[in-house]
């Protein structure tokens, strides 16, 4: 009789454990998805900033207003927000932000003409 009572007391405990494991796995999966969303947002912001900086650097000769307008067009085409744009001679510095869920990474990028390599690195 004691055995039957112990068995009855344990009845349904597997369901509780299965529900607990499913809840924990669901929480871990949600965390992994959020981490993935943050990584994608950061990469999108970096790509938008890089392309916007290149656009600004390509049009620097037309003045800072034209260069920053080009950067703004490129950032918008990448579904990003242009946070800052500054020209220092031929070098453009921009910052872009992408909103993806709760994440809003802001990335800075710089573009300009290539620097001259040191003389010892030049091919003969």
Per DSSP, what share of the residues sits in E-state strands of 2 or more residues? 15-25%
The Cα radius of gyration reads 27 Å
Q: Level of helix content? A: 55-70%
Mean pLDDT: 88
Whole-number tally of structural domains: 1
The description of the largest β-sheet is: 3 strands, antiparallel
Q: How many angstroms separate the termini?
A: 97 Å
Order of helices and strands: HHHEEE
Shape: elongated
Structural class: alpha+beta
Number of helical stretches of at least 4 residues = 3
Point out poorly predicted stretches. none
Oligomer: single chain
Enumerate the strands of the largest sheet in spatial order, edge to edge or round the barrel. 1-2-3
Number of strands: 3
Descriptive notes:
This protein has 3 helices and 3 strands. It is elongated, with a radius of gyration of 27 Å. It is α+β, with helices and mostly antiparallel strands. The protein has one domain (2-114).
Write the layout of secondary structure elements.
Elements: H1 2-10, H2 13-58, H3 64-77, E1 81-88, E2 91-97, E3 106-111
Antiparallel strand pairs: 1-2, 2-3
Summarize the entry for a quick read.
The chain is an alpha+beta fold.
Fill in the keyword field for this structure.
alpha+beta, single chain, 3 strands, three-stranded antiparallel sheet, 124 residues, 17% strand, 56% helix
